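Render this sequence as a predicted structure.
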Amino acid sequence: MDATTEKRPFNLSRWAIGHPSIARFLFGLIIITGVLGLMRMGQREDPEFTFRVMVVQAIWPGASIQEMEDQVVNKIERKLQETPHLDWVKSYTRAGSTIIMLQVKGDTNSKDVADAFYQVRKKVGDISNELPQSLLGPYFNDEFGDTFITLHSISGDGYSYPELKKFAIQARDMLLTTPGVEKAVIIGDQPEKIYIDVSSKSLAERGLTIPDLQNAIKGQNNVDPAGSVDTGLRSVRISVEGDVKKAADIRELRLRAGGQVTRLGDIATVSSGLEDPYQRKYRFNGHESVQVGVVMAKGFNVTDVGKDVEATYQRFEEALPYGVAVDQIANQPDVVTDAISEFMHALGEALIIVLVVSFLSIGW
């Protein structure tokens, strides 16, 4: 066979030299596509990952460890064994409470992980009638992978925690309408409590006990059917209002025992206040504060969402009263912007060095 007629393998460089117009067009198209892809791709400080662990918690006040295991833990664990893609289940139980942890297999994709956690909630919900009536929960938590892209502090001299919480709720409601925001979480708020101080002697004199007091308060907020009036044209529901909303309502509560009625405020001191002792308290620059963290939805650009969040906070601050300050604690968009700028700077330096060395090596 003649060497000149032998078929040569495809050579991209020779083809590009022979078709310069097409080569320049393709080169420009690749550059433009790459730049557009870089500008539109999702950006965040850390890559997204799927958390494959879920925690189930239940509280049964007054129960022993054996009672928790027999009537709560064993029933829940047996049901959890039916979870698809299950890897393992562990439980940590003590008197009155239990924490059950489960993990799905590591090769399970994110869609199947979400379905497995849904099945956990569904299956445990199916046996809720088999669990003790006074059991609190079960509670589920599978949101360990959430990270805040921004964290802001709301503080103000002369403002109480309940007042700061109201401002934080307003900020949260506005943030949830911002494009790219999946969650807005309030942290550091102090729960309000109603305290009842009563002596055992005062209760005993009237034939009352602590459980009697607890049942009376619990029953006050029950919603029971009181009937309805049917006029033929329409039916009107009748309801009895007696729910407890503040400390004054508790003071007016009537307790019945031994044929006599006792007003709770006559035998007990009822007051309202913040949780004491508090579990945690947040301060910013020496001031007590309530903080709001923003979680970004998947697939969004953190720098774009960060700009929208800042615009939302500007509108929020315009409506705040004098003395309330909003301060930024953490801002992931700035970190990402600096990281991208540093990368582009390093990339530019690398390209220049490569081009200079290449030109020098060919004697240009």
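Summary. The mean pLDDT is 84. The CA atoms of residues 195 and 271 lie 5 Å apart.
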